Amino acid sequence: MSSRIFQNIVEQLCDASQATIGVVDAEGNVISCGDASLIGQRFSEAALMIAAMPEIISVSEGKTFLPLKGWNATYGFSAFVIGEGEQAQALCRMAQVTLNATKTYYEEKHDKSTFVKNIITDNILPGDIYIRAKELHFQTDIPRAVFLIRQRGRADVAVVEMLQNMFTEQQDFVLNVNETDVAVVRQVSFDTTGEELNKMAKAIEDRLKTELFARTTIGIGTVSEHLRELADSYKEAQVAIEVGKVFDTEKTVINYESLGIGRLIYQLPTTLCEIFLSEVFKKNSIDSLDQETLFTINMFFENSLNVSETSRKLFVHRNTLVYRLEKIKKLTGLDLREFDDAIIFKVALMVKKYLASRENRMM
Length: 363
Fold this sequence. Notes:
Elements: H1 3-17, E1 21-25, E2 30-33, H2 44-52, E3 58-60, E4 63-67, E5 77-82, H3 86-120, H4 126-135, E6 144-152, H5 158-166, E7 173-176, E8 181-187, H6 194-212, E9 215-220, H7 230-247, E10 253-255, H8 261-266, H9 270-280, H10 291-302, H11 307-314, H12 318-332, H13 339-362
């Protein structure tokens, strides 16, 4: 258990009691204390006394000790108060009760976090989810959203701690998945919209960027209404990031529900994609189009196939754009001014981009 958690409680106890209170581990090392100068010191004699009589108050070298729940020879913690006598014993009992409650809460939180991590990573059988949830008194049928935060560039371990400080509710979980990925499982309402989820993700991104200078990409899965659906939501968040890397390289927050046709293309076999391109571009390969032509095409799509608006954005005469579109028609056999042809061409561009990303990944 983190000494930082104990330290926060210990400081509050010291302020309230005007006494010096602390926590030692099983070896007698001071891990938290109201007197910061004592942190790191070892009370070896006290540790031996506690190990011999873990159920009662021990007094050693002017200090009063009382073990927390779950003490044993290799793992455990004990509260201590500087001083002896009835008042010191009363303060020690007060500290024990408070620290035990804190310890129990965080141990339960850890057990639940491990449980949730096992669910999203498919490390638990579906039939065991309900059994384990019952053991942990875990609510199974409340809506939850999964945010997958992936660090770009150098990974910073402080990201996990900051996210834990941001999401402190009992039903919120911050899970360190691997070196670059952190999953946040957050309780939401049944009517939470995709736009609201995007705002939550943006708030996470802004906080990490502002305080840690961390560059991240965040994938958002669909809201799960039952615990067993969490794994699907997590996989969707992963897919959102991967699809975003191919089709929306400038986006840093990608919602699975907003992926559109890119999600479909991403799941197609490469052989099928290659067949599609060969059938669409019978006259000439898509590679025959130069960068200027591709830029014109993309601008035409961005302006909803509007010739006048596109020519204005490109700073060219309307007739010049019409000439370019006619040239594209001769090369490809597709008239982008026709809605059906435009759709085919748009999909073809996305398929080409997908195949290129696959090739780069394999290199």
